[in-house]
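Reopening this one. Same input as before:
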Amino acid sequence: MKSILILCNGSPPSEELFSKYRAKTDYFIAADGGANIAQKLGVTPDVIIGDLDSYSGTDQASEIIFRPSQELNDLEKALQYAQKERGTHIYILGATGHRLDQTLKNLSVLKQFSPHFEQIRIADDFGETRLLPPSFSDDFTIGTQLSLFPLSGKATGITTYGLKYPIDNEFLKNGVRDGSSNEVIANPVQITHKAGDLLMFVKHNSD
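Same output, byte for byte:
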């Protein structure tokens, strides 16, 4: 197992959040301007990758890789490199906030790359987002806020256990029905779905 942290150029994570995820990981990739955020945090990436249009050029990483392709965004380039490094568990910071179009693009990248890793998650100071497999089960602190959203317009055959507002073989559809602001009331939380792409957002608990 190799865990990799990717830092993008969206809203910067707090020092506390960055330290939490850095401690989970073996390798640190900065996606272009994410290297500027790393410098402000006082940390050095193992590698910087991207078209380098946002990178200030003042960080001293062990390796800098210029990938000018406009067909891929910098997160995609970082994830391709994570595949090359044989990463299995991927944690992404700085992929949300600032421009909404870039946030939506980064969420869509989860669908593209999830089959290539055992686990891939996007986190910020509010919570953590992942694309669920057809059958999911995990334990959470009772009272944790949890939301479900269909990534590709509609997800069907959704059934949940352990949530305050259960779903029983039902659908979620953008603009029609979503599963926001649910709450964990029992463990393990179990979520299954038969078709579509289902995102789960889990709010960080306050200590």
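So the earlier flakiness isn't reproducible anymore. For the record, The two ends are 29 Å apart (CA to CA).
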